[in-house]
UniProtKB/TrEMBL annotation:
This is protein-tyrosine-phosphatase. Residues 64-126 form the Tyrosine specific protein phosphatases domain. The active site is at residue 91. The lineage of its organism: Eukaryota, Fungi, Dikarya, Ascomycota, Pezizomycotina. The keyword Hydrolase applies. CDD domains: DSP_fungal_YVH1. InterPro entries: Dual-sp_phosphatase_cat-dom, DUSP12, Prot-tyrosine_phosphatase-like, Tyr_Pase_AS, Tyr_Pase_dom, TYR_PHOSPHATASE_DUAL_dom. It comes from Acrodontium crateriforme.
Length: 314
């Protein structure tokens, strides 16, 4: 296998490892004008003389955030190609970090999936294998629609929040108050809720369907239905969730009835699924109310018992 390999297709896009930079004659033969370094190592600046050079300092570990750099690396690669030059993307071995950056570019340029992008690269460089964390980030980038501004995308913000929760969990601590993301404080599409959950005692609305987290039963042979709705953190929970406790009760903000519980380290539903963080509303203490279509007026209607039981497993 060559020290640098051309990504299949009509683009002058190459991928390689650190030692590629010492083969000046090979770089010149390929018409390389731009070099993107995706690694955190001391670099000899003399190796990059005569090239447009960009460095993204990341380690090859699952929890490294390479996703936030995709718009900048894509722009650098595109600039080199638009100028008629060749672009080399490299890391230490030309295997994980560089492959991830090239995949991100191919996903945005061609609208293909991460698996398709990696398969294309492997045609010329079979050893390419982004670590699991980077592959997950590529999947998220694809689902987000490859936005030019990743940091303003709600899906990315939720992903960062989940990373904070996982870090706090690993430390055995509740997340810091300022890092908790209350989803209802972020814009939602009007009329996007299919139903709402109300306190059974006082009828106060506690959550709408866009804040209910879907989960699948892990015990496939079990006939037990889920006894909780798992939801995002919501603003009425603020006073309780910001107390820095690992777990506790959730009370209705109107009548103070016990309506659920939370556990930052995660909670197992009676169906077998683990949800992290576990923020739940008890089905026995809430009513699911179908939302009326836009223009129908009112807050919705309470479903009759037969209808509710048919939708209890949402």
């Amino acid at each position: 296998m060559a020290l640098l390999d051309k990504v299949p297709g009509d683009l002058k896009l190459y991928i390689g490892g650190l030692f590629t930079l010492r083969r000046r004659e090979s770089l010149e033969a390929c018409g390389i004008t731009h070099v993107l370094s995706v690694l955190r190592l001391p670099l000899d600046n003399k190796l990059f003389e005569g090239f447009e050079h960009k460095v993204v300092e990341v380690d090859d570990v699952d929890d490294e955030n390479l996703l936030e750099h995709f718009p900048a690396t894509n722009e650098f690669i595109q600039d080199g190609l638009d100028r008629g030059g060749g672009v080399l993307v490299h890391c230490a071995m030309g295997k994980s970090r560089s492959a991830t950056a090239v995949c991100a570019y191919l996903i945005r340029r061609h609208g293909i999936t991460p698996a398709e992008a990696l398969s294309q690269i492997r045609e010329s460089r079979p050893l390419c294998e982004p670590n699991d964390g980077f592959m997950s980030q590529l999947e998220l980038y694809h689902r987000m629609g490859t936005p030019e501004n990743v940091e303003e995308t709600p899906a990315y913000q939720r992903w960062l929040y989940q990373r904070e929760i996982e870090l706090s969990r690993a430390c055995g601590q509740a997340p810091e108050a300022e890092k908790i993301r209350f989803e209802d404080e972020h814009a939602q599409a009007p009329g996007s809720a299919d139903f709402e959950l109300r306190c059974k005692k006082c009828r106060r609305s506690l959550a709408t369907s866009q804040y209910v987290l879907p989960h699948e039963a892990q015990q496939k042979t079990s006939t037990a239905s889920c006894s909780h709705y798992f939801v995002d953190p919501l603003s009425w929970m603020r006073s309780e969730l910001e107390e820095a406790k690992l777990e506790g009760r959730l009370e209705c903000p109107k009548c103070n009835a016990n309506v659920g519980k939370y556990a930052w380290q995660g909670m197992q539903c009676n169906c077998g699924e683990w949800v992290v963080p576990g923020i739940s509303l008890a089905k026995s203490r809430t009513d699911q109310v179908k939302s009326r279509p836009q223009g129908a007026g009112g807050m919705g209607i309470r479903q009759p018992p037969a209808r509710r039981s048919a939708t209890e497993n949402l």
